[in-house]
Each structure stands twice: as C-alpha cells, then as structure tokens.
Specification:
single chain; about 425 residues; alpha+beta; about 30% helix
C-alpha cells in the first residue's frame, strides 16, 4: 500500500461513527457491510449526553437528531403500585451541556450512513461484503472478505472489527471465547402511536426486576393528533437452565403470545395492555451479552462496539458506548498515528472499565433499584423513602452514571475527545 488504509468490518452505528471520525481526522478508510442495502431497522434506543457530545463534534447536532428522535426530559422507575421509586431530569434539564436523545435506531443509522456518503463518497461503504477473518502478515492485516459467493482478500494497515455480537473478527481474535450469554430475560419490542405521558419525553421503567415494561417516545407528537411513536419493551425473566431453544435471536411474534404476562397492568395514568395491543407488530429476542475478554486488540486489529462489549440494554448505553469507542479510537490515532500503538492506547483506555460496565449491566444496571425494592419490601410500599432513602437512591444512580461515563460534573468539564481541527500527521 502507498498510504495507510483502515478497513472497518461492519456498517452499523459503531462502524459508521468510526468511519466518520477517521474521515474527520484525515485517515482513509473503507467500511465493509454484509447487508445488500442499508435499511432503517430496529426500534428505539437512547443516546446519552456523552455520545451526543461526540456526534456534535462530528457535525451532527440537535437539528439532525431532532429529525430522528426527541430530547429526553425524564428518567423514572415506577413500582407495580403505580408509584414512583425514583425519577430525575435528563439531558439539558439535568444540567448537562448536551441533551440526551431517544431515537429510532434505524433512522439514526440511516442518518450516519447518508452523512458518511455525503462527506467521503459512495465508495466509502461497500455493501454485500462480509469480513470472515484475518491474518497478520508483513506488518499489515490481510482481511478475508466474502462477497457475491466468493472470498477475496484485502490488505490494510489496520482492521477495526465493528461487526456486532456475532463478530467474525472477535472469533478470530479470541477463538476460545465462551458462547453468547443469556441470563434468562426475554424481551418483546414494539412501537405504538400514543400520547406521551408525564413530561412528554419520559423514559419510564415499570414493574419488578423480574417482570417490567419500559417505554419512551421516539418521535415528536403530531400537531394534529398529539400522538407520538412510543417505543416499548416488555420483559420477563424465565428459567434459563436449558439455554436458548428458539431458532435465531430475533423473531416476529403475535402480541397474544406474551400480553398475558402484563394483564391487569392498568392505572389511571397508563394502560399497559392497550399500549402493547396498539402496536402493528412485536419482536421477541432474549437479553444477551458476551463475557468480557482481556483485550480488544491483536496488533493491528481492534474490536469496538458490540464486537468488543455486547451488553444488556438495561443502561441504555450500548449505542452510546459504540460512538464513544469510535471517538477514542480517533483520538488515539491523532496521538499515535495509524499504528498498532494507537490501538493499544485505545485498548488501555476502554477495555478494562467498559468490561466492568458489561458485568454491571448484567446485574441489572440502573434497574438494580428494582432489585433493592423487591429485597426490602417484596415490591409493595406506601412511601418509597421508608424503603430506600432518597440519598441512597441518588447515590445508586450516581454510581452507575460514573461507571457508564456520563457523570454530569466529569462530562461537562471534560475537554473534547478530539480537538477541533485535529488531523493525523501525514
């Protein structure tokens, strides 16, 4: 090769954020994506303020994010008696310098793809091309690529594995890794057009640590009807002694298959069965992650996003962390060039603490407050302060935010991950 080239395996949110970052700092890159076409798949996700900050530094600000989601105003946990266990403002209302966004995952994905193509050209993403493995040879990475029924090889200076929880790059790097981990939680996801409640942009977790519903709006209300697209997740924990027995990890199911778990979940301010029945479809998938690995790096090869740290969605930070990964990778290249040393610096900065976050989310993440309520009162209470004092609840949430990288004081005071105008030295 006459110039450095970075190949990115996977064109999801993390892979595209990496490509946008590398383009910004002047590093040639190529995204190899197995899908034949980009489509707006998925439902709702949350972007924490630390990720929104990084997108803003990429030139993707509130005007763009408002077209794919809404700024979150509140995060709340509610018990089965319909009473609050904990609530707090989010984003700008909480004092952050950046908002938190609840967005449609597929629309965000398409926004990142369009932005990359506009900036780097259509040739920056090669669809229908799946990375199946790699080898290190002569100081370069030889990448095996399957496309159109045949396998070819490409040479690169660095390879970034952004190919998700089923990552072929990770399997090559860690061939003895344990299988995907399922802790017994089963989720059903959907969206329903309905009127937003509480603040109008509230994330609400309702129920117990073994059975809950989470919902939040991912679109602005229609001016004529007042209805917004409400993303919801219904979840129960079942016996997982025999492991996952279904075919595949994600499938469409009938609402009648699971709505009985939430019969009677009706209060004067919310009718959960009606919310679920109002959806035009539902998708079932287990809540899964992977055991942490000791390193995300093999010389000139690095993992990022779900390939590095697939985690339970209990903390609403999987996509956020992928975006942060991309920016830390870029900052490391600004400091160390397009070199294995840059990947080693990235690994040293993130692998240890984010591996701990994976385990923390496996322990219910911020929903751990529901576990405490169950342990102390069986989930039944008149006044939550008599069960868990306000100071203890606030301390629990502060500890999670610090672990996830969006503690307000630390984030607001932090300098940009990549200084404006920074470029990798030629």
């Amino acid at each position: 090769m006459t110039s450095p080239l970075v190949i990115i395996a996977g064109g999801g949110i993390g892979g595209l954020a990496t490509a946008l970052t590398l383009h910004q700092i002047g590093v040639p890159c190529l995204v190899l994506e197995s899908a034949q076409e980009m489509r707006p798949l998925g439902v709702g996700i949350n972007l924490q303020p630390n990720a929104v900050r990084e997108l803003a530094d990429l030139g993707i600000g509130e005007a763009e994010l408002d077209r794919v989601g809404v700024p979150a105003r509140e995060w709340a946990l509610v018990g089965l008696n319909g009473r609050d266990i904990y609530s707090e403002p989010r984003g700008l209302l909480a004092g952050y310098r950046w908002p938190q966004y609840s967005v449609h995952r597929g629309q965000l994905h398409m926004l990142l793809h369009r932005t990359l193509v506009e900036r780097a050209g259509a040739g920056s993403v090669r669809l229908g091309s799946r990375v199946t493995g790699y080898r290190i040879e002569g100081g370069e990475v030889v990448v095996a690529v399957e496309a159109g029924g045949s396998v070819s090889e490409l040479r690169a200076t660095l390879l970034i594995g952004a190919d998700g929880i089923h990552s072929a790059v990770r399997a090559r790097m860690h061939p003895a890794q344990p299988p995907i981990h399922w802790g017994g939680a089963l989720m059903w996801r959907g969206t329903t057009m309905a009127k937003p409640i509480r603040s109008g942009a509230s994330f609400v977790g309702l129920g117990t640590h073994r059975q809950r519903v989470v919902f939040y709006p991912i679109s602005h209300p229609d001016p004529a009807t007042g209805l917004a697209m409400i993303n919801w997740i219904a979840e129960v924990t079942i016996d997982n002694a025999e492991g996952w027995k279904q075919q595949g990890w994600f499938r469409q199911v009938g609402i009648a298959d699971f709505i009985h778990h939430f019969g009677g979940w009706t209060w004067d301010w919310l009718d959960v069965p009606a919310l679920i029945r109002g959806a035009d479809g539902a998708y079932e998938n287990p809540m899964i992650d992977r055991d942490p690995v000791p390193t995300w790096v093999d010389g000139p090869v690095a993992l990022m996003g779900d390939a590095a740290h697939a985690m339970y969605p209990t903390g609403s930070n999987g996509a956020s962390q992928a975006i942060v990964d991309a920016r830390v990778l870029g900052a490391s290249m600004v400091a160390h060039g397009v070199t294995p040393a840059a990947l080693a610096a990235y690994d040293a900065a993130l692998c240890g603490p984010i591996s701990q976050l994976v385990l923390r989310n496996r322990g219910a993440g911020p929903f751990g407050l529901l576990n405490l309520v169950d342990e102390r009162c069986g989930g039944v209470f008149e006044a939550i302060d008599d069960v868990i004092p306000a100071e203890e609840r606030a301390g629990f949430m502060a500890g999670y935010k610090a672990a996830a990288g969006f503690a307000i004081g630390q984030l607001n005071a932090a300098p940009p991950t990549i200084p404006a105008g920074a470029r990798v030295p030629a």
